[in-house]
UniProtKB/TrEMBL annotation:
<feature type="region of interest" description="Disordered">
    <location>
        <begin position="89"/>
        <end position="120"/>
    </location>
</feature>
<dbReference type="InterPro" id="IPR030476">
    <property type="entry name" value="Pentaxin_CS"/>
</dbReference>
<dbReference type="InterPro" id="IPR013320">
    <property type="entry name" value="ConA-like_dom_sf"/>
</dbReference>
<feature type="signal peptide">
    <location>
        <begin position="1"/>
        <end position="25"/>
    </location>
</feature>
<feature type="domain" description="Pentraxin (PTX)">
    <location>
        <begin position="220"/>
        <end position="422"/>
    </location>
</feature>
<feature type="coiled-coil region">
    <location>
        <begin position="125"/>
        <end position="171"/>
    </location>
</feature>
<keyword id="KW-0106">Calcium</keyword>
<keyword id="KW-0479">Metal-binding</keyword>
<keyword id="KW-0732">Signal</keyword>
<feature type="compositionally biased region" description="Polar residues">
    <location>
        <begin position="89"/>
        <end position="98"/>
    </location>
</feature>
<dbReference type="Pfam" id="PF00354">
    <property type="entry name" value="Pentaxin"/>
</dbReference>
<keyword id="KW-0175">Coiled coil</keyword>
<dbReference type="InterPro" id="IPR001759">
    <property type="entry name" value="PTX_dom"/>
</dbReference>
<protein>
    <submittedName>
        <fullName>Neuronal pentraxin-1-like</fullName>
    </submittedName>
</protein>
<dbReference type="GO" id="GO:0046872">
    <property type="term" value="F:metal ion binding"/>
</dbReference>
<dbReference type="InterPro" id="IPR051360">
    <property type="entry name" value="Neuronal_Pentraxin_Related"/>
</dbReference>
<keyword id="KW-0325">Glycoprotein</keyword>
Length: 426
């Protein structure tokens, strides 16, 4: 009888192991298990509960992991659906922004001027920028032609360019807006958009001038406006400055920005980004930097009125003089003595350069209006500076850098307007 009971206990033990193994295998797959014998006089369920604490914890953990995986799977499915929707919208925007395809699948007016807009976004925007630059050059030719030859042919060419620009603008902005919706953090594409918008702004201003009959406007009668403190709005001289052992720099300026009007201009060379800088930053007075050496200037200009500024400097003893509205306001010496201004640099208007031609900081950007920036490689006389400030016909133009439209490129949305010194004051 005892043998029979022992045999029954072992059968019960084996049955218990089999039940646990079978139920656990369903939850855990291939796993190793340790079976515990159950006394013959103990309830099987109670014994199982007493000895299965760690197993229950493990099972709970696995169930939690399984739930997490299911949630992640649902999230991935939702993201895939979102991607499909964005892809569908992008395709619709592209199809709406382009003319209907003609014979052979070519879109009229697009193939030869813009290239295939279905290419990668970077390549597409690069081609759009190149095309707009080409239109800009053609428009400059139109301006020169119309100044001396106001004929029906010139007007016809102007209208043709205007229509082309309008079509181009719609396609460019449609494409760029779509890109920003799907990739809002891609810096390269944002930079491309700024360049395209700058070119469009320039084209529209020049077309407007032509339509208003300003074809005969002198090329130096304009001002630049920087309405916002940004790190992308600026103008750049097309040529570098030469080596200079003395200089005079003069300009008209109007701003009420506070604190500090920012950086009207900066000239950087390889190895020295502060070769020649005019800046008013924060609550500091306006300063001029030469080879990163600083002199504080006695200017008071942030009253929202036009002011004429001139600074002269010679490398011998680092002598400098500062003039506001034709009157000397201060002078000094030992400003970067015996250091010639170096050539092969980049002259930027409206921004301070931390790298050659770039590295702009919005907090140092110029806010206001600027005109008639001229640079000479000599020290101007007091009489010459007075003539400049009073718009005398004998006033000289810069022999190193002169204020003409052909010498300046505009970027980032800075605007250009007609300006005549003294007539436009305040």
């Amino acid at each position: 009888m005892t043998g029979t009971m022992n045999g029954f206990s072992w059968k019960l033990f084996l049955l218990s192991c089999l039940v646990v193994v079978q139920s656990s295998a369903q939850d855990f797959g291939q796993t190793q298990f340790i079976c515990t014998s159950v006394p013959k006089d103990m309830d099987l369920c109670a014994a199982t509960m007493q000895n299965s604490g760690p197993a229950d914890d493990l099972k709970t953990t696995v169930m939690q992991l399984r739930e997490t995986v299911l949630q992640q799977k649902e999230t991935i499915m939702n993201q895939k659906e979102t991607i499909r929707e964005l892809t569908s919208k992008l395709s619709r925007c592209e199809s709406q922004s382009l003319p209907a395809a003609g014979p052979g699948g070519r879109r009229p007016g697009v193939k030869n001027t813009m290239g295939d807009v279905s290419r990668g976004t970077t390549d597409t925007l690069a081609q759009l920028g190149q095309t707009l630059q080409t239109l800009k050059q053609r428009l400059e030719n139109l301006e020169q032609y119309s100044r001396g030859n106001n004929t029906a042919q010139a007007n016809s060419l102007k209208d043709l360019l205007q229509n082309k620009i309008d079509d181009m603008e719609k396609q460019v902005l449609s494409r760029v807006n779509t890109i920003e919706e799907t990739k809002p953090t891609v810096r390269n594409e944002t930079d491309q958009r700024n360049r395209v918008e700058s070119t469009l702004t320039t084209l529209h201003h020049r077309i407007t001038d032509l339509e208003k009959g300003k074809e005969t406007r002198p090329t130096d009668k304009f001002q630049l406006t920087f309405p916002l403190r940004t790190n992308y709005m600026y103008a750049k001289a097309k040529r570098s400055l030469p080596e200079m052992y003395s200089f005079s720099v003069c300009l008209w300026i109007k701003s009420n920005a506070s604190p500090g009007v920012g950086t009207p201009f900066s000239y950087a060379v390889p190895g020295q980004t502060n070769e020649l800088v005019l800046i008013e930053w924060g609550n500091n007075p306006m300063e001029i930097l030469i080879n990163d050496k600083v002199a504080k200037l006695p200017f008071l200009i942030n009253d929202g009125k036009w002011h004429h500024l001139c600074i002269t400097w010679t490398t011998r003893d680092g002598m400098w003089e500062a003039f506001q509205d034709g009157v000397m306001r201060g002078s000094g010496e030992n400003l970067a003595p015996y250091h010639p201004i170096k050539p092969e640099g980049v002259l930027v208007l409206g921004q301070e350069q931390d790298t050659l031609g770039g590295g702009f900081d919005a907090t140092q950007a110029y806010v206001g209006e600027l005109a008639n920036l001229n640079i000479w490689n000599r020290k101007l006389s007091i009489a010459e500076i007075y003539n400049l400030a009073t718009c005398n016909s004998k006033a000289p133009a810069g022999n190193v850098f002169s204020w003409t439209e052909s010498n300046i490129e505009i970027f980032g949305g800075a605007t250009k307007w007609t300006f005549e010194p003294c007539r436009s004051l305040n």
